[in-house]
Write a structure and sequence with these properties.
alpha/beta, six-stranded mixed sheet, 174 residues
Length: 174
């Protein structure tokens, strides 16, 4: 089904977000990325929640360096890349919590990061913070080829769904 949305693109950056925490963004990210990797696609998961990085726990990996240290020009792309133990699947964690997460996501260094990711991987799956909490997901959405918005039955507030639909209808989100 992703092919329908992505068209002829051979490489894609897919942002996974939701309205609030606990709706299943990380679960969806890991499962989608694993399926893509197991089908032979070179796949990268990026933990882009720089305020509450936790994706590394699911793979029992380190968060000593990651996206935040790359964006702050403290580490290279290769320095922050971690294999997951799943063939064709690598992870870049959020890294240590920086004092200026939104500034880092807005930086030209983020553009460089995504450009390098697109060169190396067929699929880049970004696990972002929730839309209703911080603006980072909006900033990342502009740089993604497609966005998957996760909701959870009897959990996602209906008012937030109306807001997200309004963002989509007005063109603020793809």
């Amino acid at each position: 089904n992703l092919t329908y949305f992505l068209g002829e693109k051979k490489r894609a950056v897919i942002l996974i977000t939701s309205s609030i925490s606990g709706e299943g963004k990380t679960f969806t990210t890991i499962n989608l990325a694993t399926v893509l990797a197991l089908s032979g696609k070179k796949t990268l998961i990026v933990g882009a929640d720089l305020r509450k990085p936790k994706l590394y726990n699911d793979f029992d990996l380190s968060n000593e360096k990651g996206l935040s240290t790359y964006l702050a020009d403290l580490n290279s792309f290769d320095d922050i890349l971690q294999p997951t133990g799943v063939a064709n699947l690598d992870l870049i964690t959020g890294g240590p919590v920086p004092p200026n997460p939104s500034e880092l996501v807005l930086s030209t260094k983020m553009e460089e990061f995504l450009e390098e990711s697109r060169k190396r991987y067929e699929f880049v799956i970004i696990d972002s913070p929730p839309l209703a909490i911080v603006a980072d997901a909006f900033l990342l959405a502009d740089r993604a080829d497609h966005m998957i918005f996760v909701t959870r039955q009897d959990y996602t507030p209906k008012g937030l769904l109306r807001s997200v639909n309004e963002y989509y209808v007005t063109g603020r989100l793809k």
